[in-house]
Design goal:
Helix content is about 70%, strand content about 0%. By secondary structure, the chain is mainly alpha-helical. It comes from Catenulispora acidiphila (strain DSM 44928 / JCM 14897 / NBRC 102108 / NRRL B-24433 / ID139908).
């Protein structure tokens, strides 16, 4: 029998990549529920996907890839537990996993993937650890991708995730939320996680990935909808859902036919999803009508509502956008918020004013590609082409998204 053709290899690679995007969280969540150990779940899932590459090339892609991966991962996990169960108590503990005993109660949340998020977002963990761990376990993001999202070194991020898993295991944190009363204490961390999962999908940082990963944006929206069902009066949950919907509505116009990201002012607004925009606007209006001071996600949603209300980029109410950023700065005085506010200020007061603000952020945002991209654009608009080219070069060097790299390269090359 001859070797599999190159086309077969490419087809299997595509199938495994697609399955990883669609099934990783489900497989990990299923194993976490059964084995109660995040390390076992993650490593067994990774082994199953590695096995899929070999087996699917030889036997073909199965009709139900998710089922195949889950079954294979469970076998890998059982093999691992048996290897580690070498004596007494460990052997006794391991026996639990080798029988089809009734699963423990799921608590207040029935969805397995959402329970996984809440497990990783336990209050016993530091907020940064909650977010990083969930991005790894739910989104299947690599440590390098998560490190880029946090603007930290890959080694440091790997250690953070390892410590978080160890703490969950040592504290015997259960894979469930005991009651609905426990939800509000954890929801802030959960929303932070889902926001970053969505952002990773909307501007994917991984090498050799599509510029936009709809699987991640769709999963973040799905889980946020579930949380809104559980906590219908939580303003920030509604705000985050509105923010996601208004951002997702623009996705059809986000990438050009050549795979280049399209900036907001150049997008075909006729291609935007009007149903998602209407739903997002309704959520924003409901929060405004509540009379309760808005939080971070509600303000970001309101900013997006202003953008999606304009039929043309020239009709954008930039004074309202800046006023909303002024509110946001008061509750989130981060350099990234200051950067985004300055970009809006440029539309009101001109690029020179905005540039002066952005230059003061350089020490804190030098490793952030969007800082250099914004600075390059403002320098271009002020006629400082040489400095603009240098800034574009730095942004291209730091950008991890293929579509964004193509966009920045074109803008740099237009300088002549």
């Amino acid at each position: 029998m001859g070797k599999p053709s190159e086309a077969v290899h490419d087809g299997v690679h595509a199938a495994v990549t697609r399955a990883h995007r669609e099934e990783w969280a489900r497989v990990v969540a299923t194993l976490t529920r059964r084995f109660g150990d995040l390390d076992v779940a993650e490593e067994a899932a990774a082994e199953a996907f590695a096995a899929a590459v070999e087996h699917w090339r030889a036997e073909g892609v199965p009709p139900n890839p998710g089922g195949w991966l889950t079954t294979t991962a469970q076998r890998k996990a059982i093999d691992r537990v048996r290897r580690e169960a070498k004596r007494g108590d460990k052997q006794k503990e391991a026996q639990v996993f080798f029988h089809d005993d009734p699963p423990e109660p799921v608590g207040a949340i029935e969805d397995e993937r959402l329970r996984l998020v809440f497990t990783c977002c336990h209050p016993a963990l530091a907020m940064e650890s909650r977010v990083a761990l969930t991005l790894r376990m739910l989104g299947g993001l690599t440590v390098a991708e998560i490190a880029r999202a946090f603007l930290v070194q890959e080694t440091a991020m790997g250690q953070r995730i390892t410590r978080a898993k160890g703490k969950i295991k040592a504290a015997r944190i259960p894979y469930r939320v005991r009651s609905a009363e426990d939800l509000p204490a954890r929801v802030t961390g959960v929303l932070s996680v889902l926001f970053l999962v969505f952002n990773e999908g909307y501007l994917a940082t991984g090498a050799d990935t599509d510029p936009v990963r709809q699987d991640l944006t769709a999963e973040a929206i799905r889980l946020t909808r579930l949380i809104r069902t559980l906590l219908p009066r939580d303003g920030e949950t509604a705000g985050l859902l509105a923010l996601m919907l208004l951002t997702e509505a623009r996705r059809p116009a986000r990438v050009s036919a050549t795979g280049e990201l399209v900036s907001l002012d150049e997008q075909d607004r006729g291609a935007w999803d009007r149903a998602l925009i209407a739903e997002g606007h309704q959520l924003v209006r409901e929060r405004l009508a509540s009379g309760i001071a808005p939080g971070r996600y509600q303000i970001l949603a309101a900013i997006n509502a202003v953008h999606t209300s304009a039929r043309d980029a020239r009709d954008t109410d930039w004074s309202q956008v800046v006023a909303l950023y002024d509110q946001l700065v008061r509750i989130d005085p981060s350099p990234i918020v200051a950067l985004n506010r300055a970009i809006a200020v440029a539309e009101l007061d001109g690029p020179e004013v905005a540039l002066a603000t952005i230059d003061r952020l350089g020490d804190r945002l030098d490793g952030y590609h969007a800082y250099h991209a914004a600075r390059a654009d403002l320098l271009r608009r002020t006629g400082r082409s040489t400095e603009s080219r240098t800034a574009y070069d730095r942004a291209i060097e730091l950008a991890g998204n293929s579509g964004e790299t193509a966009y920045l390269t074109r803008r740099r090359d237009q300088l002549g």
